[in-house]
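User: quick one, sequence for these tokens?
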């Protein structure tokens, strides 16, 4: 937002107090300016030596942390809706369909992630079959299930919720549920199965 200086508001027929009040009206309060620092949540704050791993909540993130558990792995659950743009990939075999989304950089900046293991370069869509039925054609879905097509990829913007992340020894995993499509899907490619062996 633009800030106006007191000097620019002063006119010969306006008292100085009025000019100051006008300047204050055009200056956003600090609470509206927003915090630009991420919130760091240590997984093991009492560990000695200190554990460097932590959950990073970006400033301005549309989701809020509702639970964080530490057992053999760390699990974080978030509440709130958010928009994600990027590339999806639907894969299938038999009645199973799995869809993974690869978010763009703008989407990544607002999603919670792990300090050491990194962010959600790929997010599993928990309602994959529902998503696939809404986004890809029946013919492509039939081919996926029949193992005649390896995958279908496209670019899309979705509204999601139920964001979750888990941290295991070998890295972090991320999951979300898609609620609706914010923009229509643009199919990039359908990858047919190779008829040849390995």
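Assistant:
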């Amino acid at each position: 937002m633009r800030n106006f200086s007191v000097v620019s508001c002063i006119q010969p027929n306006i008292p100085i107090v009025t000019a100051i009040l006008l300047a204050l009206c055009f200056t956003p309060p600090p609470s509206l300016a927003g915090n630009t620092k991420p919130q760091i949540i240590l997984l093991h704050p009492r560990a000695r030596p200190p554990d460097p791993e932590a959950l990073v909540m970006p400033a301005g993130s549309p989701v809020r942390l509702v639970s964080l558990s530490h057992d053999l792995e760390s699990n974080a659950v978030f509440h709130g809706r958010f928009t994600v743009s990027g590339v999806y990939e639907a894969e299938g075999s038999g009645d199973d369909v799995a869809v993974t989304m690869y978010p763009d950089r703008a989407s990544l900046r607002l999603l919670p992630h792990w300090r050491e293991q990194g962010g959600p370069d790929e997010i599993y869509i928990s309602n994959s079959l529902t998503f696939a039925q809404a986004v890809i054609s029946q013919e492509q879905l039939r081919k996926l299930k029949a193992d005649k097509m390896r995958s279908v990829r496209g670019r899309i913007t979705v509204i999601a919720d139920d964001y979750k992340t888990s941290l295991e020894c070998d890295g972090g995993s991320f999951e979300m549920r898609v609620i609706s499509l914010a923009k229509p899907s643009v199919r990039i490619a359908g990858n047919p199965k190779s008829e040849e062996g390995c």
